Amino acid sequence: MFKKFMLNAGIMLIGSMLLAGVASAHVTVYPKEATQGSYEKFTVRVPSEKDIPTVKVEVKFPMDSVAVSRFEPKAGWTYELAKDSAGKITGVTWTASGDGLGSTEFGEFNMQGKVADAATQIVWKAYQTYKDGSVVEWVGAEGSDKPASVTTVKAKSGAVTDSHGNVTAAQPAAGSSESKTPLYLSIAAVVLGALSLLVSLTRKRS
């Protein structure tokens, strides 16, 4: 009886692990967290879930949350940009020039963009096309079978990242305590000088 229980428990555990693996195997955009106003390198990770290759990946950009402007070339793939009437990039489609991504493979596609100053999250809608023409739409809400990848955006910090990835400290506002530091140092120097003079005079008199 105990052996049968352990066997069933083992089967259920293996089954849950397999299901978890399938559930987690979806198009994901990294990083999962970014900062308002920063320039980020975004990586679209694409696994294949079928026994046939993935030959096309399309990602749409939420224009109110991020402005993607640069794309890293990827061997074996070409890319085409979608633009609106104003010429702004609204999405990208990568198409395999060879065999694509096999059932045991995954691919990563890199791009760079600026996170909007007022963004709170970036919802990446992705469309994965297989060689047989079937399309999997990763556009659902969190917790659904085919969720869109989401990057959480946090408020601005004291540091700023430019388009080259360099991080610099934010400049203090006019009238802030940091901007008055030289004045405070000058006053301290004058006070110390006066104290030194008084000590010197006191020693001479004594």
UniProtKB/TrEMBL annotation:
Domain YncI copper-binding: residue ranges: 26-143
Domain of life of the source: Bacteria
Keyword DNA repair in record: no
The protein's name: DUF1775 domain-containing protein
Transmembrane segments: 183-201
Keywords, sorted A to Z: Membrane, Signal, Transmembrane, Transmembrane helix
Organism of provenance: Paenibacillus planticolens
Keyword Transmembrane (UniProt): yes
Position of the signal peptide: 1-25
